Amino acid sequence: MGSLTYREDLDEEKNSEFTWEVQANNRAYNSQFKEKVFLCWQRKKYKKNVIHTAKYNVFSFLPLNLYEQFHRFSNLYFLLIILLQGIPEISTLPWFTLFAPFICLLTIRAIRDLVDDIGRHRSDKVVNNRPCQILMGKSFLWRKWKNLHVGDLVCLHKDSIVPADLVLLASTEPSSLCYVETADIDGETNLKFRQAPVITHHELTSIRKIASFQGKVVCEEPNSRMHHFVGCLEWKGKKYPLDSGNILLRGCKVRNTDTCYGLVIYAGFDTKIMKNCGKIHLKRTKIDYLMNRLVVLIFVSMVVVSAALTFGFWHKVKEFKANHHYVSAMHTHSVAMEAFFIFWSFLILLSVLVPMAMFVMVEFIYLGNSVFINWDKHMYYDPQDLPAKARSTSLNDLLGQVEYIFSDKTGTLTQNIMTFKKCCINGVVYGPEETPGKENPFLWNKFADGKLLFCNAQLLQAVWANQDWRVREFWHVLAICHTVMVQEKNNQLVYQAASPDEEALVTAARNFGYVFLARTQDSITLMELGEECVYQVLAMMDFNSVRKRMSVLVRKPEGSIYLYTKGADTVIYERLQKKGETEWATEEALASFAKETLRTLCLACKEVDEEVYEEWRQRHEEASILLQNRAQALHQVYEEMEQSLQLLGATAIEDKLQDGVLETIKCLKQGNINVWVLTGDKQETAVNIGFACELLSENMIILEEKEIMRILEVYWENNNNLQGGKKKELPLQFKMALVINGEFLDQLLLSLRKEPRALVQNVNVDPLESWQEPGEERVDFLQARRLSLMWRTLGIQLRSSGLAPQQEDSKTLKSAEERRERAFVELASRCQAVICCRVTPKQKALIVALVKKYQNAVTLAIGDGANDVNMIKTADIGIGVAGQEGMQAVQNSDYVLAQFCFLRRLLLVHGRWSYMRVCKFLRFFLYKTLASMMVQIWFAFYSGFTAQALYEGWFLALFNLVYSTLPVLYIGLFEQDVSAERSLELPELYITGQKEELFNYWVILQAIAHGTATSLVNFFTTLWVSQDSAGPVSLSDYQSFSVVVALSNLLCITMEVILITKYWTVLSVLAIFLSLCFYVIMTSLTQSMWLFNRFPKNFPFLYADLNVLSQPPIMLVILLNVSLNTLPVLAFRVIYQALKKPQRKEEVEKVTSEEIITVEPVPCIHRESRARRSSYAFSHREGYADLITQGTILRRSPGVDSDLLVDHTMPPDEPSGSMKESLWYPRKMSFLGRKRHSHHGKVSSEDMQPPSEVSSSLTMDRRSAPHPQPLNKTWPSGSLQEKLPYSPQNLLPTKMPLSALDSPTTSVESQTLPSSQLSLQSQPAYLPQEKTSLWSIRKLSWKNWPYIWQKEPEPRREGILPVSSSNLSALMETVPPSAKGSSISEQPMEVEPSPVEREPSPMEWLPEPSGDQAAPDLAE
Prior knowledge:
- The chain is α+β, with helices and mostly antiparallel strands.
- Helix content is 42%, strand content 14%.
- A nine-stranded mixed beta sheet has the order 16-35-34-33-17-29-32-31-30, sandwiched between helices. Strands 19-18-28-27-26-25-24-23-22 form a nine-stranded antiparallel beta sheet, with helices on both faces.
- A hairpin with a 2-residue loop joins strand 18 (414-425) and strand 19.
- Helix 4 runs antiparallel to helix 5 (96-128), helix 26 crosses helix 27 and helix 36 packs antiparallel against helix 37.
- The chain is elongated.
């Protein structure tokens, strides 16, 4: 088999062609596209939105299920025997005796598969019947998901699930933004923003316009790349680019967006999430495969034995005919023909060596063990009333052989609840205190959030005292340095954060009196201990993966400029002004937080002089307009400002694990089970959870991309060295962990169409790494030496074990792709932990498939979301966690658990028991069958090789059905070697299943030898005793001999059950007793005179058992047979166990001593511990600062009349009242964007105020957004500080004519310069000079809104220093001359590809401009 990735690469290249055309509101056009299926048969190219994850339907169930069942060789074997029994000349038993149980076996398995598939059908029905609003005619009507077609327009509301892959056309958010949560797709819980194309944002402002939309989307064919999309929108003769930022994927949830509209481009199985779901695989256990091979071996052995016995018959018949010619008339057939018939007769006679009863009973054993899992009260989750459920009944024994667990992170390991756990301020650590339930410590704060449990009386006293500047600035950083948005709902503040971390930090500041009230694009309003303060935002420096920090430059109300910074401890400590006692105490606190696996941030600040700021501002503006290397230049400018910081403290946030996760993983690791974490979340967050789960530890060497590629590079370069080297074991002192991301995984497993060395070099070249933080390149010499030694050692080991390429032209080597895959899996399997971040659902399945392919190990995948479905289907065992992310994972799983911690009991107790029971059952059944049926072979030597049966026919029929069924069924259902509590205390017992010690070829050979020995003893001992016997106690007759051998076999088998049973209960005693009773009863019945008189041919053994058992000498023969079979076996087992225990003890002591010697007390690489402490710094994506500084994210108040309001009529069958409210009524005026009253009428040029400063993106078209008023009525409003250190004369703004602003140059600047750069905000955020009521709201006249380059006149605000007109003109001159004279309308394709835009959404009920106040038409 070729590389697993090679075929996928070809599919991806094929699907990259731009041949997918979708026209909006035109089903007839879209349905004309066809695709070839087979020969001349064609079908519609675009699939419907109906999904079918079930395996069968009404027509395919019977043929497909039979096809799957006859993959088992045992079923083919039974079918062959049944056909042979239908031939009278060779039949030894009636055909229906085997046909009836065979039909029962097939029926039981078919019903089991049918029940599992009915659950999938029900799940599909629920999904397909979900409601959504589809544009039908000129209005949106409620329809079902299954009625959705490619090209339809869909209306979605807040908390709606996206029904198909859509192109976002418009939304009610500013600039047609749409916030989505993709936890069900990629595992990330932080919000992501998507944005409609600029053209549809401006044009599609009403339902009427949306209904008339006839745009066409041309894009790539459906593929599985979740984070990639390329296409264009063709509309009105122009083309507009589309990328992944414009796409809403099926399965996303719409968050913080009232209404949005989209065009369906992929539906049903063409959607990206369904492309990643994979196919349903037929799952079979290792024992099942082994039994399949065993049946083949037994069948081959039967053919050989039958042929040998037929050969004996050939000679016997020849000799008989020669000596007894007078009976030759009885032999009507030739010798060859009779031998042919005898061969098939022997084959039928020996067919009982593969007993069908065993396969029927195995199904009942599987079913019983599944019921025990469902009934286990220890795996019942009371809060959600969810018990464990075994949805598949054929994989129980596989639960006892798991070697690799692949787990999702979000919702599986974690609760996704971030709590503010601790903080350190000025070197003092403040932890949570238990407060009496009756008293709320935050009653004094009307804005406090009752959900925050953190409280510390000492910290509250320090906040109230307001004496320590560090305490004050600490809360300032949390309340100001963030990207959180705030809304008012029911007179309460509601924070909308891009990540739960930021929300927890801002909420903590809110509870301690520093309440974040509102923000505009250039100001932040706080309520500080009851007093309202407005901070002017001069610049926001957002997070990214290199900076590892965020900074905000603000001007305080008194006029001073402060820089507030929060970020990773490594980068903050490198930028501190000094390191004193506070810094050392904080570092110790960080270390203690790290031991508790809390996610930490360091907070710092500094005061910036006015002159320093002005110089820095100029450099920042110059860097922001560079056309090349702009990002690196901005990094350098930020680096200059973020120096000489003063450390304030640190915060510690707990990403709560699910209950019992830590203990479960520790227990599983002790059971030699490897736990790999596969998540779509970011690397730092996943690594932090790895430490919290103790998958990672301080003394591990964490291999990341560079180290992995260097290891691979070593053995690729030296592929001709050490070819015959001796295989070396990896030194135990190297504890390694592997941390990779999805993009690197793609590069690593890419099919090698070029030289490996070139691939390694390409991977190592990273354009972002040319800029590094100071000090990052410093690595300790000894650590580097240890890494180098480890690389060489691992490289040598890989080469010596045949993994590294040695001779490219060697025919024995696999393809380069397979070698690369095998090397990666081998490297990963030698690590103590593997964490894969940013992986798509298809990549998760690929990793599972690689481990299955190259390690031949049992894999288990556990997850709770749709992004885990493919992984769950691919693994040998799939477990769905019934969580918050829907039921897709549950419906596609084999087992359902409510919590990850239940996995411990499922594997170590139920899994190990099931494996042990099934193995014991199979071994005993194999022994039982051979012990009782091998005598048929020995008897053939004394019956002239005539294929005569030794036993009574009814004994053969009832032996596996009644006489020996109950004891062996008890073993398969109730046997326990140790108790459940002991199994959990000793996870090492689980290793037995991983090594397949209880059922393998050696165990099978032992069972065959044991059964053969028992049959030999029972047959020949009885034969020797009966040779010279005569009289009433003679065994020389056929029936007596048969009864003695049969009874000896039955008692020997019963004694074997007694010896191997370890868990004795009343049921076990009852099973043995009833089996013997059934023998007595059924034998008395079948050998009775009444049946003999009526059916003499069918019941020939008249009183045979009674005659034999009434003679004491014969009883002694039976006792002798049982003793000869039991006592040697018992003695052997006792001696073996006595010799085995000391050896095991020595091995355990040896392993323990080795582990003690190899433990390293000192961390190998210190950076790991530091990096994990700062995982919060990457919890949300970069770009939210741009949305804020450009005003894109800020809401505007609704206008009076609205085209949408008139046209948007709701269908009468709407199910949701909340949706109806949001559509009929204008939403409440946002707390973020409330405006003050202004003068009505036209605005003169004298009234216009120039911006005090131009942002880094030089967007000149932003409106001034004054701060809103606070909500709380109880707190005194008070006037803000009026006496500021700046004289009013210096604050007079420079007047500028309107024509200077409304010019092509300004238009070019606002459009051609990138909007994605960090902005330097210092527009006038005027403060009121008079006292205002807390609830007084000043509104901006709707007539003035269309002037997007004008500022409305407002009273001056103190504390603001606007820039002069000369500086402004100088800044405007820095625009490249090539951009001058161009306009947006002339270059629709030249729009900056940033996902953010400045303007408010037309969907927010903004009025249509009229007259000379109309805004410029950007679409022309």
